[in-house]
Fold each of these.
Amino acid sequence: MGNLIPGPETVPFFGNALIALGKTPDDLIQYCLVQQAKYGSVVRGWLGSKLVIFLADAQDVEVILNSPIHIDKAPEYNFFKPWLGEGLLISSGNKWRSHRKMIAPTFHINILKSFIGVFNQNSKKVVEKLRSEVGKTFDVHDYMSTATVDILLETAMGITRKTQNESGFDYAMAVMKMCDIIHQRHYKFWLRFDPIFKLTSFFKEQKRLLSIIHGLTNKVIKSKKETYFENKSKGFIPPTLDELTSQTEISIADKNILANQAKTLSDTVFKGYRDDLDYNDEQDVGEKKRLAFLDLMIESAQNGSQQLTDNEIKEEVDTIMFEGHDTTAAGSSFVLCLLGIYHDVQAKVYNELYNIFGDSDRPVTFADTLEMKYLERVILETLRLYPPVPAIARQLNRDVKIASKDYVLPKGATVVIGTYAIHRSPKYYKDPNTFNPDNFLPENASCRHYYSYVPFSAGPRSCVGRKYALLKLKILLSTILRSYKCISDIPESKFKLKGDIILKRSDGFQLRIVPRERVPLKTV
Ligand code: HEM
């Protein structure tokens, strides 16, 4: 069945596996795109006897992602196990289902509103830190990854800044290097075998990196548990959402915006995903007690019906820390670099911000984020051209007939959803390689197939952090752009993309900034 699907020529025993020899991850991305152009939106490859099928048609992507059946991750995700264990990203079956049901509501829109104060404070901190870079060329990703780690620690993990005694920088760097090792294991077939991998220097390096990564997450859980037991001994009950929101600087106006009124452009773009995030939001708070992520994990371990083990908490903390920071660090860095190239787009973003804030330095409210319509289009367009997760993979547990062509994908195959390729397909986007935020004008977005835009995946296993990410990105980016003008001397055509687990630039995210004069700008 696999051989009925078109794909590059194979050699005996190895299939197409030898293609990886001597190629860097950057070469491989290019190679895959060329094969996709040559063979179409359904392409097969053989890694020895293992069949891998690449999909880049929205109709086929919907068949896989929207199904409650094809939700198991491909065996390639097992390389994450020493790091993430059986956390939400990797787990399957009942474990995945019950943990998803528990974790997704911890990103309810009303919980997110309670994070706005922290998003603001950390964004201001970035603006302060960036002051030392004025006039120089520097890698903005370093700042974005430290900020996104700090923000996660303070929001989802509920670790106050006083308790955070070191920067997230070492953690973020270790994550980046870990992803590189895992990615090399994906395409260098000899590294797939544990006995061979363990003989290489990669294994030793992996051990060192995991001690940094797990060092931070263990510390986070320990500190949170200590607080929990200390509070419990004093008879302190974890705060309800109402208490949580009243402790933070959430404005009355923000409090009064109900979940179902808080519709943004993205909510329309992602409406067709049919995932649980909108459903959760529509179950409005009332008197219901809602807890942020780690509070809920610890509370459930002590009192919940599920009795989470310490190891399960650790797996989920490692998963959220990874998924929640590296993706948004890459996304925000791409936005700033693109705005540094397209000055007219940057001017439009700034004018929108000027209309909302004037020349004031006040923090962003939730209501303000609903007004940032152009910035939102810029973010969505950036995630189209540079999706932080450029591909995702599922394991087929039964044969699947796809929609675009007359092929049956056989049980046992790995299906790779080529997000990067779909997002740049001329079938869905006019001038697909051109940065054009108007691709997300409601009238343009509404004519496209929902699954032609899947930066957060879609369906039952979509990203639980989608709304968190978009809200955080708006606050972080708007705060930076109100203070600095961004300039990038490297045009998009010279970006060297690194086809890693998380899409980055191997040439770094080089940027220059100049302090902004807070006056409206002329646009074309
Ligand atoms: C721009 C930012 C982000 C992007 C582009 C993104 C993208 C994705 C994608 C494509 C997946 C599916 C991965 C797969 O199937 O292999 C995913 C899953 C996931 N994401 Fe995100 N993500 C972002 C931010 C976040 C944030 C901020 C969090 C948490 C705070 C988060 C937590 C998760 C989790 C836990 C999963 C696994 C969900 C499951 O399998 O049920 N992500 N994300």
Amino acid sequence: MGSNNNWFDDKDLIADFTSNINQRTEELFRIPDMELDEDGCFIAPVVVLRENVVFPRMISPVFVGQKQNLESIRFGLENDQTVITLIPKDEEKENPVRKTDFYPIGLEIAVGRLVNLPEDHFSTLIQGRRRVILMGIVQKKPVLMAKVYVPEETVEETRILTALMRTTRNLFEKCVQLDRKLPDEAHAYSTTITDPSWLADMIATTISLPTEQRREILFELNPTKRLKLLNQFLAQELDVLELGNEISTKVQNEVDKNQREFYLREQLKAIQAELDEEDVFTRELSDLKKKIDEASFSDEARNAAIKEFERLNQMPPMSPEVSVIRGYIDWLLDLPWTVATEDNLNVLHASDVLDQNHYGLTKAKDRILEYIAIRSLKPKKEKQPILCFIGPPGTGKTSIGRSIAEALGKKFVRVSLGGVRDEAEIRGHRRTYVGSMPGRILQTMKKAGTINPLFMLDEIDKLGNDYRGDPSSALLEVLDPEQNDKFSDHYLEVDYDLSHVMFITTANSADSIPDALLDRMEIIEFPGYVEEEKLTIANKYLISRQIDENGLEPADISFDEGTIKKLIREYTYEAGVRNLEREIGKVCRKIARLKAEGKNIPAIIHENDLEEFMGPPNFFQSETEKKDEIGVATGLAWTANGGDITTIEVLTFEGKGNLQITGQIGDVMQESAQAALSFIKSKAKQLNLKNDFFEKIDIHVHVPEGAVPKDGPSAGITLAVALISAVTEIPVKKDIAMTGEITLRGHVLPVGGIREKVLAANRIGIKTILIPEKNIKDLVELPEQVRNVLEIIPVNHMDQVIFHTFGTETPKRKESPTRETKKKPEKGNEPVLN
Ligand SMILES: Nc1ncnc2c1ncn2[C@@H]1O[C@H](COP(=O)(O)OP(=O)(O)OP(=O)(O)O)[C@@H](O)[C@H]1O
């Protein structure tokens, strides 16, 4: 037997049955005179109610499908007898017939007329009367009959009960407010009920409780307890309703907002149409279309722009993709595709401009003037040279790039590649990345605004590479004239023509530039400057620039020649002039302050005034003050910062023939030291060393400034000289420095960076240097001034080196040495060189 739970629902059906049930209505709430036995029980046919829970006074339409139920109802109707409903414990069981198959509490009901439905089904209306207690099943067939009795309901009017009824009504009221399915009258009706039992049943009937809870309420015979139970269920139900209400309010607000926006937008459109105006988005789109039509794109770029524009046109203005596509089209529009500046190919003009801004640098200047000359003779020459300026910091590489651009009338742009590790920095990220952009090359082209700027790629030797890709491979594409007309950027996805760009790269050293890149570039070396050159640069360019930058007038300040020299020698130590310019700037700042304070300014800054402005000097040319020493030789080194000198120290101890080398030196230098030692061992006899001499000593070679890594073969002869000095105990001449690779047989091989090394020796104040004979060719570019003050001695064998460093061809260890061979130092008792 199935039915609808709610007594307010199915009003039509109720109306249908009203006429039939009318005749019995007055009987419904009247307890019929049942024939009670001696125990106060009566016997009635049983209707088995499965899914449904009916409460007293509740009217419910039910479908009657089961034969057993149909028989019971018919029996009841025919014999004008009350019927009871029982709930089976196991709903699946088909024909429950025993007392234990049912819950012990059932309901007496009134039944309406049976209405025929198709397929032998019937429906009817039932109304609950009273709770009954099942005593037993007295008949199974033809009609299931049960013996029941009606329990007495005693209610005590207590304050608790009154309070309970009030809270129940309040909770019910809230439920009615929140649950749209409940009719508003339900609460009003509940306020008219004074019987607590009926109140609990009426509310349990009305609200949508789970079957389990409904049954619990039905089975509770004590009205006070029933109300308590109901209160608990109502509170739970209220929680659920409030949550549901909160969610639906949010959803509703969202829907309302969207609807409102839609409505307003439609209204706006209507108003704009009325006023003959476009909306903002449509106007932006039409502006964009106009820009695309007018832009001078490459064919491929135009197609891409149009395709993306069409996608944009299809999109609702609020779509998040709109800004991505807009950004992309803007990039296409912002990049120069055809706009070019006209090159000034006048060689004389260019020569003037270059000389105006820079002193010397003839190699770079000549190369540019040649380029301009060829371009002026053959204007159609397409391929641009790719130059690489290599030299120590501050030697004017970047600044002459700027002058070249000025001379040629080109736009100048610059990108520093120092620390670029990610290929995407050069080539951009794909558009699928959030916040993606083109790489630095195209960003800079946008800045240039023309297709033929002078594009400087600074610090190409400081490119890194790691798991994020190799940026140098992307640069290969940029710098290869054969393929840079089709440079592909991940973001742009359209080929970009870089072939009109004049690329100049700069680096401090060629060593760390990947070979493939180096191969594509024409190297122009920027050697460091000698003192005279620095002096000229300071006088011609740096001083006037710093005077101007610090707000002074040329009449305010002038520098003595000795002052600049002192600045060069004692306040800076560099191959270029960057620090010199900074130091000049420092002096100018002090003068500017004096001027601003209205104090006296010295008309000329003399050498002796310098310490007053600058504090004590930072560097001392101490080389010339040194003594001749045993086991110490001066080598010439070449670093990315230009030339420098390195001192090599050797100590011997009583020991077992071990060689220890310290000072962060690389493999090549280690091997050089081994080679030098082997060479000396082979010369043991000439050096007057006993056969077992080397077995009884340990040798420690140290290259100071241990924090700086050093490597390369060029310290070979210096290592050998220091070793010979240490083992023969004959001091090395103090003012001589050397460079050259040594072979096992004592030959001296050529090395790199000669010019830088010679300049460094000159800077330090060394008088004599030894260089490999094969490096003589590198001296051609040496300034006259240096050649005049430095004695440069070419050598091709260690014998010559020994002669010049010890003043004799055969330095010999004395038979009875002047000093005892030192004992190996104990911890905390380290050797001191003397
Ligand atoms: N020959 C020169 N004539 C005039 N000024 C010079 C000359 N060489 C360098 N300078 C000046 O020295 C300063 C430093 O030069 P620049 O920045 O071009 O050095 P750089 O070689 O590019 O250094 P880095 O390798 O550190 O980038 C600039 O102000 C520049 O004008």
Amino acid sequence: MTSGGGKGEKILVSVRVRPRNDKEKTRNDICDWECVNNTTIICNNNLPERSLFPSTYTFDKVFGFDSPTKQVYEDGAKEVALCVLEGINSSIFAYGQTSSGKTYTMSGITKFAMNDIFCYIQKHKEREFTLKFSAIEIYNEAVRDLLSGDNNQLRLLDDPERGTVVEKLIEETLRDRTHLEELLSICETQRKIGETSLNETSSRSHQILRLTIESSRREFSPEGSSTLAASVCFVDLAGSERASQTLSAGARLKEGCHINRSLLTLGTVIRKLSKGRNGGHIPYRDSKLTRILQNSLGGNARTAIICTMSPARSHVEQSRNTLLFATCAKEVTTNAQVNLVVSEKALVKQLQQELARMENELKNIGSSSSSSAGSDFYLLLKQKEEVISQMEEQMKELKWQRDVAQSRVETLLKATAEERSSRMDEHSMLSSVDFDADLRRRSYDSIDIGEPKKMNFELFENSEEDDFLVEDNIIPQFSRYNLYNGWEEIVQKVEGACMESEGEQSRVEAETVVESHDDIVDKKAVSEVLSPRKVETISSPEYYMDTEKAENEEVEEISTPEEDENAEPETYELTFKKSDFEMRPSVEVQETQSVKEEEHEKKEERKTSSSKQAEQHSNKEEDSQPEEQSEETVKVDLIPVGAKLNEEKCDKKLPQDADKDYRSESSVTDAVENNTTYEALKEKVKEMQRKIEYLMSMHTSEQQQQLSPSFRRDYKSPEFFTTKRSRSCRENLLCVRSPLWFDNLETSNNLNASPGRHMNKTCSISFDSGSSMGSTPTDAESLKDCDPETGNSFQEFVAGLQEMARQHSLDSTPEIDYGIEIKPESPGNQVSDPHNRNEETTNDQFEREQAHDLVENAVPKETDSTETYPEKTQVATGQYSSKFSDFERQQRQIIELWAVCSVPLVHRTYFFLLFKGYKR
Ligand SMILES: Nc1ncnc2c1ncn2[C@@H]1O[C@H](COP(=O)(O)OP(=O)(O)OP(=O)(O)O)[C@@H](O)[C@H]1O
């Protein structure tokens, strides 16, 4: 086998010109050839017949007459010959005519090569060399083994790897140099034996000495042991002279033909090989010589041709032909390769190693590809699993949120239902709700109170409460012209069912509340808070201005002065304070559980029902005295929660009110005598007073911060009607009242001296009656003195309120604060004679009479009041076109506020009692 890529290499062609032998010298055969240098040889024959031939020849090496064989070997054969040691086939040819010195040169080169090879082997002990020598002779196209010692012709065999081989050729393994010399000697002898018989001086056969060298490393090499196997052939060709020149015939001719055949074929092959691919078919098989030397001629071998020639002119033609052959030969390119012979054991090892390497590569490829693909798949799977996990978490979260939301919705629905149910119960117990509904449905279509109010009531009309109340057979529907009677009818109906179980229980609760209050309230603090100094500061105009500025101008009035000018004559301005609706200073505030509040409110409702029943009796008397109802306009806000009304105060009433107070007192007294429920009402009033006292103390600090400016502002805001309607009005009545009440107490001392003070005060009249009665209760202790149980009778309390209202009306105060501010801006408060009223009075007449009373009491009596209050002059001189009295309007508006603020039943009842009481 060959390894390594060999490149094309020209046949090394050398020319050796032997010296003239003795014979040639004897014949004086002129030497025409001259070796001008070691590569060029020229012919000095100037004969005209030689003129067509070139005279100068250049070859790889040109050896002259005196060139020793050693030099010829060294320069023209050694390199090629020693290639065999490297595993490259090589061939050394000697070509020339007979007696030109071929054998002489070739025998010398072979010896030198063999010598060098042996020297090399000796130098390279690490390698093991195997030298096999064989020698054949080709005579007349017959191959003969020179080492066999016989004349048997050998056949040529075609081997796929080795090419043409000589069958049964003896390859003698050289033991040493001597052995080689013996063999060479044998070969020479055998060749001479044959040639002697033919030509003593000339060889007629081709001799091929083959030395095959196999070399391998002696030590183990991981690369694997390899054997270099190459052959070096030393070919001594027969003389190339032409047969004609031999002058032979018969057997000689035949010999010559066979010699020439091999030589002619060799020439043809060389010529063709010199032409390269253009040379066409190479006729190796045309002669045994060319078949045996096929690899050496243009194949896997390095070749060196040494052309020998005689310098004698007599051989000039033969010398020229030799040079022509040499010229062609130097054009032939061979492709020599290293012949690596691998032993079976080494080959097995090498194959095993190669197999293992390839298996590893396959495993690596598979593992790498599978690992990369597997890793990608694993990562993708992991990512998807993470996404799925996240989605599952999100689903859980969403489900949880959904459940929570559903739970909240259910809770809200349940709470709403409970609240609605409680309200329904409350409204069913309190006919004032229906009163409101009736008022909204029938009264407001004729009363222009501004857009916000309309919207508010539209909302009420669509509420389910109204539907429920309408369907409730217990609650009768009232006429807007006789609200009083409707109220009292309800009281009568409800009171019958609730009156019996209400009395003692409510009384006990009230006492409990008072006791608790005594333990908690810091009386000193309450007294300090309620001092006149602080009240004056708070209620001053500067305070209102500052506060309103600080509140970012959130004030929205229901009816502005400009609007009032174009509004209906009976338009009133209602002013509330937001904080009053936000607070709920009742006893029930301490009870955190809504259930307790509901129970308490229900109790109060039952109480109210009983109160209504009691009022129904008194109302009958009021109907007989309608002229006093006009003064209820002032009474609205004068609910004397905690007010101290005693006989001493009553004695200090103004003279013009004395008569009315007396009549009222007597009327109440008659009611007590004629109706057993009057005592129950008294108890309720007492209970309310106690509660109010307690709440006043509890919420003193808050009251300081929540005074009438914000109250007025918030209530004037349209949004308030839609957002704050559910708040209890108790806080309006209780928490606000206290400080302003003391403020009024303070201002009441100068009531008559400063008639125009209300221009600068918005909360002026509510409890003026307290001061007008002579006493100025400025602390909680004084409030306790107002207990009708210990000091004043209820008749006296009501009489005090009447006196307060009377005083207020005389003072012509245009504003009523404490939750309701009434400005009788109607220009036509024309009055009718109040003394013409009686029980058979029609509604219109009743209203006119009420209006008359109101105007009569409201219009200042003093002559300079017109200048002070120009709007009141307008009231006194204007046209009173409305068929409703101011009192009823005020009453309606208060009732409106009940609905808007969800005023508890107890306070509504309280208002109602005050209306009635004032009438009395
Ligand atoms: N270069 C040389 N120097 C001295 N003598 C030489 C040289 N060449 C050849 N001879 C002599 O020439 C004679 C013939 O030489 P040689 O036998 O080698 O010729 P040849 O070409 O081999 O002929 P053949 O073809 O018939 O065998 C020999 O006696 C040899 O000694």
